[in-house]
Hints:
Layout lengths: L1 E3 L2 E3 L5 E3 L1 E6 L2 E7 L9 E3 L4 E4 L1 E6 L37 H8 L2 E6 L7 E9 L5 H4 E11 L2 H8 L8 H27 L10 H10 L5 E5 L2 H14 L3 E5 L7 H7 L3 E3 L18 H8 L3 E3 L11 H10 L13 H6 L17 E4 L12 E4 L2 E2 L2
Parallel strand pairs: 1-6, 2-7, 8-9, 11-12, 12-13, 13-14, 14-15
Antiparallel strand pairs: 1-4, 2-3, 4-5, 7-16, 9-10, 10-11, 16-17, 17-18
Amino acid sequence: MIIRGGMIHIGDGTVVRDGYILLERGKITEVSSGTYRGEDREVLDARGKIITPGFIDAHCHLGMWEEGLDFEGDDGNEMTDPCTPHLRAIDAINPLDQAFSEALDYGITTVVTGPGSANPVAGQICAMKTWGRVVDEMVIKAPAGMKFALGENPKGVYNDKSQTPMTRMAIAAIIREELQKAKRYLEDCRKAQEDPDADPPELDVKCEALVPVLEGRVKAHFHTHRADDICTALRIIREFGLDGVIVHGTEGYLIADTIAKAGVPVICGPIISTRGKPELKNLDRKNTALLLEAGVKVAINTDAPEVPIDLLATEAAIAVRAGVPEEKALPLITGNPAAICGIGDRVGRIAPGLDGDILIFDREPIGLLVRPEHIFVGGKPVR
């Protein structure tokens, strides 16, 4: 199929005017300016339209807290053990929850969804498409990350139980302890592989889940709001050589230079939020703009269902009003989150070899509840 004409936003800030996109077998195989000179194909005329990659929500809990349900649909926090790295989001997601359809209606074709922030070590995150019926067929990458949480949320959960961790010290200590266990477990496994006379360690499913994090194959996502918690996350990332990501980073603008120096990206948001708990007292909509200005790689998120997922592009528009340059708004929900979440080889840009996740708009897409005219997922028109 050929999509011709229109203004093609690649997803990294660059634009191709009056060009074309060639889709074959679900993939983008060619993007170019000018006129397509190949053989005749099915053509979608997009002249006068705006074409973008499918949007990505870099951090949410879609399908884990189901719409319209109470505890029956609450599968995001296992609040019985502060360390649960072996839990897999893929086992809790309901892809038939109506929030997936609402996400797709507004151009969000990929979500990075996972456990909540009740536990210091919460479990494995999943990156998946929003179109489909079976999670296994929708997955882009699982695990796409390991969820860690610092600060108020785990403190509150376990304080109510009079159980460790009740302090920030204990939260960090639990994370370190589990990473150290996994490090020793990995060393023992390697010794057993190298020495046929050495006995392998007894299977430990928690360590098995953390080994890919230590090896840098799975990213470490740290839920943090306060600047001091962000610094703790950076400290742990540095100590263990993790491929880290700061999630929320509400007070990131207060230490933007420190984050930039560490080279750790931030998934900001939700931008549409009240100061509903003590950690959010310094919430400022300029956070995204100031982090970008400091040289930090940034994406934005809804944290759905905290904020309805169909407001993702609206959040990008608010970020622009708060100082983000207009040309950098679209990458906040396309190329940047793909790169930050380690799925840029599949989604986030309109480029050869990537999935044919494409949106076509009749107006500027960064705004209040703007719906695409056409939505392609894997090269297939789905809306």
